[in-house]
Design goal:
The chain is mostly beta strands and about 170 residues long. The chain is built from two helices and eleven strands. A hairpin with a 4-residue loop joins strand 10 and strand 11. One of its GO terms (molecular function) is carbohydrate binding. This is CarboxypepD_reg domain containing protein. InterPro entries: Carb-bd-like_fold. Keywords: Signal.
Length: about 170
């Protein structure tokens, strides 16, 4: 009976003095027009195999997760981040206060442009379309002008660039 009491007492003191850490950070928003939307609608989700925590960013887009045991954590957002659903992996050590700055876009950063001008150089003479999916075309002879395009890949999403500037190597 005494051994059970001592075991319980040791377990109580061990858990009382175990160190926890915190993950704090700031959301970095590339489009200032989205800041109000992010403040109203965004949830920051922190999870690992043992727990899931969710918070909203404050007025300055800062956030803090406290009393976290050490381990590997994943941070994601709801709604998802554009152009891809970005997830950040962080490792927290016992007693550590980890600071992270996370890029987040609640709206698609690729705007439809009527004039197809590159946002970097402002010109359209080196701008070519981006083609997605499997592109199969006819072989051209040397006399025929070759169609130019930039291969966008096989995965098609609701947020992707339509144009590529060869001069600046910029998708838009």
């Amino acid at each position: 009976m005494k051994s059970c009491f001592y075991f319980f007492l040791i377990l109580l003191f061990t858990s009382a003095f175990s160190q926890t850490g915190k993950i704090q950070g700031k959301l970095i928003i590339e489009n200032n027009d989205d800041i109000a939307l992010v403040k109203q609608n965004t949830l920051i989700i922190l999870f690992n195999e043992n727990r899931t925590d969710t918070i909203r960013p404050d007025e300055n887009l800062n956030f803090t997760f406290k009393n976290l045991p050490e381990g590997l954590y994943t941070i994601k957002f709801s709604p998802k981040s554009y152009p891809t659903d970005v997830r950040y992996k962080v490792t927290l050590k016992s007693g550590e206060a980890l600071n992270v700055n996370l890029k987040y876009a609640i709206t698609c950063p690729y705007k439809e442009t009527e004039d197809h001008n590159c946002p970097v150089c402002g010109k359209n003479d080196k701008v070519i379309p981006i083609i997605y999916g499997l592109v199969i075309g006819n072989r051209k002879t040397k006399e025929e002008e070759e169609d130019k395009y930039f291969p966008g890949g096989c995965i098609v999403s609701d947020c992707q660039p339509d144009w590529y500037c060869e001069r600046d190597q910029k998708k838009f």
